[in-house]
Amino acid sequence: MDTNQVRTMPRIGEPAPEFTAVTTQGTINFPSDYKGKWKILFSHPADFTPVCTSEFMTFGNMAQEFEDLNCQLVGISVDGLHSHIAWLRTIHEKIDWKGMKNVEIKFPLVVDITMNVANLYGMIQPGESSTSAVRAVFFVDPEDKIRTIMYYPLSLGRNFDEIKRVLIGLQTVDNFGVALPADWRPGDEVIVPPAGSCGVAKERMEGADNLHCYDWFFCTKQISKEEVESKLGK
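RE: above sequence
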């Protein structure tokens, strides 16, 4: 393998690639303009398409929920500024879908006609399309490091409950120094990081009287939903 080969997408744990771009909210410098906040950078294939419209309406409808989690949304596609503006105006003025209407998109939508940003983030995948970005989602933490990456094909809309769950989960991991089991939701048991034995795990975990060990390598601890939620967005 050629170790000098240029990678086509960033990796989890790496700094988010920097770019400056024109958006529907003016020029931005990503991710530095939002340092100290969580960021979700997500791509869509094209303006004036039905799956993308359903997604933007959902993001717009949930925007306050993400803001409450100290998270900045940033969208991107390879369309131009006038197309972006006209599409978002159409969404706001004409589309009524699943009880959502008059949805105003206030977060920036990046103009990427040259596909520079899409290529920087590996959003152009020729097996799916060589001219449109797939549905990528990058979670970037307050220190501008990539923490999670999701990819969806052009034909499949994203699960927004899962996007929000991942954001809450990442913040919980950071806030409590734990890991999270499958299908975790706030209030569920969290996993105590492996420490060689449950005895050592109890010593490491503050207030670990409620530690439950299924075996020496698999110990959990209860953290209440209220305690988890009290630290979200901090």
